[in-house]
Amino acid sequence: MANMISGGLHGLLDERQVDTPVARVVRALSGHGAVSAAQIARTTGLARSTVSTILADLKRSSLVVEVETRSPGIGRPALAHSLNPEAGTCLGVHLGRNEIRVVLADVAHSVLADIAIPLESNYRPEKATRIAKQAIDNIYKEHSLPYSGLLGVGFAVSAPITPSGKIMRGSQLPGWQGVDLRATFEPVLQKPIFADNESNCAALAEMMWGAAAGFDNFVLFKLDLGIGGAIVANGKVLTGVAGTAGEFGHMVLDPRGDLCSCGNRGCLELYCSGMAILGVAERRLSRSLGMAEFIKIAQGGDVGFQRLLEDAAEAAGRGLATVGTIINPGLFVISGSLATAGELIMAPIRSTYARHTLVKPGDGEGANPQFVTGKFLENDNCMGAVGLVLRHHGRLS
Ligand SMILES: [Zn+2]
User: Fold this and answer.
1) Ion ligand 1 nearby residues (CB, 5 A)
2) Which family does it belong to (predicted)?
3) Which CATH architecture best describes the domain 89-203+380-390?
């Protein structure tokens, strides 16, 4: 049964293959998890009565199940619908600088497994393919799940990805420049391959399950060792023609500034990345230290380290003010390891943003965009890679 359903499910998820009312309902369920019939009607534009008939059919064929959801504080559970968790699974794979991480989830949006495999920092595609395949085989064996139920594999990559699935530049993944992700992984995994840049995946995760749930227009700004970002407009993650939309770290602030890894001078990344901060901190301590330790010392009251965070946040706020002036989003999600510093980083970002952006506080409706920290500070890339498959975004063909 599961095989038959997942075969059917696969076709229904691809909007280029089918655009029937049934497929639209299935895609709404896949993209949103547990939802009410009213929400499905809103998302799909179908009449309530049509949605009800379709849901009844899908339940009869065991593709959809009823679930109870409980809003916090409200006693009565509401009835929602979800894809049958047994109808299929999907995988998210993060190709990071020195690890591969794999998350397995079912089509009802439950995470079933999450494993990280540390690797040397210059691992190559051949090795990644072998390691990923092995890890995936083990996961399916361990959970006694049929590989035939796997609907697709999403890849979150530490590099810009062109729409055809090639890695544009491999500054984080040396040796991967020009690598065709579909040609690399599809022959081995034998499943549809989806891919996007890791920050775009992070934005998708925050939109589907995290800090940006319910927002169709927002900007994700990732303050990590490097700087990443993503723009979500009308519910879609913008990729751009060459896959570099949202690379805020490489906005040039000072054309005479230091040389950046991208080849330009004075990029934002040089002023607010974790790498830049740790460089100064390590010189002061005359030893190496990680971001978690750095933040702990700053939060413990070290004024010098607090100053470094403040300066980084001010640079980030100036950069974001430009982004805000251009895009005018209602929400900024600040993610990455630096976001764990809380108000030490958030307060100066907000105030610098307000000082430099076009729309000022007091300008009335929509004048104050919200700044929130991301929900998935630790595995957003991988969760977003799962989201690529569930939302059928970034399919390589
Ligand atoms: Zn740069």
Assistant:
1) 250, 260, 262, 264, 267
2) Belongs to the ROK (NagC/XylR) family.
3) 2-Layer Sandwich (3.30)
